[in-house]
Amino acid sequence: MAEVTVAIATSERGTPRSRRSAGPWRVAFTQIAHNPVAVGSAIALVIIIAVCLAAPLYAQFIAHTDPFQSNINGTTVIDGHSVAVLQQQTQGLGLGVEPIGPTWNISNYFLGADSQGRDVFARLLYGGRTTLLIGFSSALICCALGALVGIIAGYFGGPVDWVLSRLMDIIWAFPVYLLAISLSVVLLTGGLKIGPIVIGPSNLLLPILIIALIYVPYVARPIRGQVLSLKNREFVKAAIGLGASDWRILRREILRNVLPTVIVFIPLMMALNMLTESALSFLSIGVQPPNASWGTIINDGLDLLYTRPAVAIAPGIMLVITAVALNLLGDAVRDALDPKAKLRGAA
Amino acid sequence: MLFVAKRLGSALLVMFAISIVVFLIFFATPGVDPAARLAGRGASPEVLSQVRHAFGFDQPLPVRYVLMMDHLFVTRDLTSYVNIGDKVVPQIMQAAPVTLSLVLGAAIIWIVLGLGGGILATRFRGSVVDPIIMVIGIAAVSLPAYWVGEVVNLITQDRLHDTVFSWVPPLGYVPFAQNPGQWALHLLFPWLTLALLYGGIYARVLRAELVTAMGEDYVRTGRAKGLSERRILWRHALRGSLSPVVSLFGLDLGSLIGGAALLTEVVFGLPGIGKLTWDSLQNLDLPVIMACVLYAAFFVVAANAIVDLLYAVIDPRVRRA
Amino acid sequence: MTAAPLLEVDDLRVAFRTRDGVVNAVNGLSFTVGRGEVLGIVGESGSGKSMAMYSMMGLLDNPNATVAGSALFEGTELIGMPLPKLNRLRGSSIAMIFQDPMTALTPVYTVGWQIVEQIRTHEKVSSQAAWKRAVELLDEVGIPDAARRAKAYPHEFSGGMRQRVMIAMSLACHPSLLIADEPTTALDVTTQRQILELIRDLQAKYGSSVIMITHDMGVISEIADRVIVMYAGRAVELGGKSQVVRSPRHPYTWGLLGAIPRPGQRGRRLATIPGLPPGPHDDQTGCPFRSRCRFAMDECSEMPPLRATGDAAGHLDACWLPGDTRESLREEIA
Predict the structure, then answer these.
(1) CA distance A326 to A333
(2) CA-CA to C81 of 20 to 30 Å: which in A27, B124, B143, B223?
(3) B220 touches chain C (CB under 8 A)
């Protein structure tokens, strides 16, 4: 089917404008737009993104709370009574504190408080912003970088290919989480200083770059394979035979045909990257305080699991819904653009 | 035989490459003084100079690499500077059986589930089995295992612990040698948490492979030979379909040892390499982290090499490579 | 033909339900195969020749396919035979070899293993005895060093050698009918000839009947006793080999024969048949060849029956052209 996409793309270029039927992009878009699962996923994503972007509005105008300020001695009013946000634990040894649970009142500790008395729902929205931002930007960087490496290695071959491929092999053989842990822990203990560029330990760029980097082979390998086979296709050979420059062939023939695959990878990669970010944040080496992400909130909720499960469960549910929506959308995009594209052996 | 030697050689090469990458990450990342990193937060000047001496920071990079490897694998006297005096390598050796128990048990369950599910789904193609496997497949790539573990804990340890799940032991680990029954019981839910999701993916992959294989020419030959459909499925189609599943298994075993299992150990309170890593991450105990990462990575490479050898047993075409 | 043919096919029809309606892949095919006879079925790809064989053998696993008509093998009906019973016939009494020897063998087992499997499916023999027979068979089909090569995997053989393995496997249980589906198409020219000679020698030795399916008139003239020419799911000409090859009567056969290069015809352009066979959704009434036939007439909008139009016994064709004008018309296009 990938052949078909390519065939459409090339034949279209060869035929006169007058006979032009709907282009491959348009065909794919129509196919996605007629897929109820894809449309549903897209709508769910738009809602999640919109709600998360509105986090500051919610915190300021509805909940009247600062989700980054600990509120250990604060009180709030529930059903007309003034209640401490953190209460002494009554069960067990009575040593710990117990934050208030979900009030299900949208303007006041909707999902309760965490162990520092902060509004969990407000943090959930802010955390979503961070997680989505990291997932999306690292997916873009990763796909761009992976496509670049794959195209260069595949097109130029020879020693360039050898070096790049071995580099990819090493990253590939290195279990992603272990690589991410190594990079994160080192960078978080001192930030990154390369000449004049200084990235502080709590800068979101660190997790974005780390996550983008570790998944580059996932994109680069299939793209390289695709470019290798494209190079042997008649239309590329014809372009080479006609004396087209490398730049022109790369832009007109290679990039144009590789692009659908790269686009297929973006939503799938974004889901993967969000999950990775959350796992790293859960391990406390992803997003650093005072920033919140869904992973750090799940971590916050670990100690409150049995008393106040909403803290750990709610961000997980958000994460799963977003990841499912992205994967479903990604599958639909793949079916429409490049059914053979595989991010990984599975799924 | 040549193939085995070649594969083991390349595994060694990969281990070497990984150790270099780890070394560069920990010792040559631009930023702060690597000695300060290794010594942990707020280390005293004495400790700092001790670290500098132990890892040869006044010497060129290759010497430092050799020193690091020496501390890790030869003398195995790498010590933590946070919990001063703790030898790192024995801790890892102590934690390794826990991780192995978790990973191997889960792997066996998921292979059984995956193969069974895949074969069932092929036999009952087009029935309700297909959408179920689809859903599990999507869920498996979308659910964070550690979070699922927390939900499982919430249910089995707290919310339903007084009724349905009263038989579930508290979180923790019992060594196999001490009490095999308790060992299995303690690991049951961690195993299931990992295995159900992966099993779903495998069932999906195997089903796709089997459906493709059942359309191959050699299946037609088998029918023309008068073989029963059962024999064609089990002896001919399945055998060829196992190869991609096995290579996927190698990949996942790696991501499991170095990822999902790490997080699952934390959630289920299993004192394996993952928990050790987690604990040292909490206080940024870099020598321990470095050692855990390297040992786990070597584990993964070794597992992959074994899987590849298995692959060659299943598919004779690979042996030529 | 003599009494009690080995295989008697009557009005065989294969239809596929598709999204755009029913497609008739085989449209009322009737023929017989006598004992020890080699029947060639020739036609372009898509003419339904393979489809007819697969439907008889129960090898159509497309759930949208329906098979109608009758195929009596040694007096037993093959169409609609339950699978367990069919499995006792397949591989023992009726064997098949396929076009692409590269993919027809299971890649993960040795060829010896696969032949042993064939023997032991149908006969109660020890695996040692079966292995010994497998080696003998491989030796007989001309595989050098058979005892050692039996332990090799399919990918370690060349295409021609693999087809020899397929032949050895198909002959393992001494079938009375061998169906060869384009056995030489995927091979190079020299290998093609060797494989044909092998099939002919073994056929002569064992006395099996053979149905040779091909699109190559050259193969037919080499090996067949009788020939069926198929076009768009129907037989358009049927007769003895020399009848069909020397004095073909259907314009389509003329085209087919014109498409083979012959010595002594140098300097002439190879004839091709203009146009394409009718698509599955094209109008299915009338002679299917009429859109490509330069002699098409008004009568051709009605389906011509398969019947004798000349003097030769057993030489039938489906064309409305007057029987006595055929010779001169053929000269015209030659």
Answers:
(1) 10
(2) B124
(3) yes
